[in-house]
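TEACHING EXERCISE
Course module: macromolecular assemblies
Task: Read the component lines below, then compare them to the predicted structure of the full complex.
Student: A.B.
Group: 4
Components provided:
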Amino acid sequence: MKLAIRTKKAVIQALKTRGLRLKIGGFNVCLSSSIPEVADHLLVLYGASDVINDEAFIDFYISLAPPSKLRRYFRPQVNFSYDGYFPFKPLPYDQASAMFEWGLNWCIASHSHQYLIIHAAVVERNGQAFIFPGTPGSGKSTLCAALVCSGWRLLSDEMTLVSLADGLVYPVPRPISLKNRSIDVIRSFSPDVIFGEIVNDTSKGSVNHLRPPDRSVELGKMPAKPAKLIFPKYEQKSATNLAPLSKSRAFLKLAENCFNYNILGVEGFNSVGDLIDSSDCYDFKYSSLDEAITLFMELAH
Amino acid sequence: MLDDCVISLPTGSVVCCRFWEDESVVYNQVSGETHLVDGLGAQIFKFVSEQAATRTVVLQNVKRVFEFEIDSDAEGLLDILILEYQKLGLLTITENNSA
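Instructor-supplied answer key:
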């Protein structure tokens, strides 16, 4: 059953009692919260996700709640907990939905070592996964959002999960996190897309999440074969430039963008090596989304 | 200058290599460090990762690949690299008992 067909009242009730259980890509998440805005966030952005039954194995038990009764009224805050453990300091109450997204990123990155986990957006077209590793500010999420708005399948905006078992990229189709100027860029690029509530004054500035296409969520179990590894760099007024990158240099750049390369040891080395073997590698500089999309369309043919 | 020693990867698959064109990436499990090695260094690893070899054989291989006459400067550079890689735990140098 899709979350979208639940009423807001039912979602709030589930969050407050036994927790709302959602299938998100290959992960089963149980979220508890007394914060009504969290229900809005889920209904708008996770509407296409399946609600799973009470017997299903849960990968991550997550809770979002005010840290104390006092903090419900005086400068209200929200705390994120995973299995009863509090990995972060509390945030202002109105950042609860963003905290859920960041916290879930942390859960996946810290516990899913059956995958090589790359800090990268990944999209698919014609059976080919295009991987865009990037540090904050590189423009990977903006590029990812523009491609997804142009019909590409979203596998992930934040984390590329490469299976150690078969080398394929497994999806976690979740909302795309856009920040600051990127929000308006994508709003004008694709006026029909659905955004959640904007969250201002976070440590990353203003953050707004874009709903993933329903089709990408429905294909949440279907992996894709890595084909292109592209290191994007947004530079104002720069010409669109896709430059081949040597595989050895791409290896080092990719390893730097992995969350668990060092944890995996030789497995990590082999996984990165196999990914590099199966991908064409590039550095990519851009300022025009339209030109970037035209170029990647050609590359995907 | 090094004697005609035997050069090899450390035992126990401690060091892993990948090769692409004239570059390689070398991973040391003990230190956890990954090194980008190109040019002459990449050739050394390409050769000794297949089998241990004496310095003389490595030198001959380098000469064949790069198609140049090896003078004392080139030999010196080869020795510096081998010793540097040994220091990083990427290569092992042992005495050549068959010499």
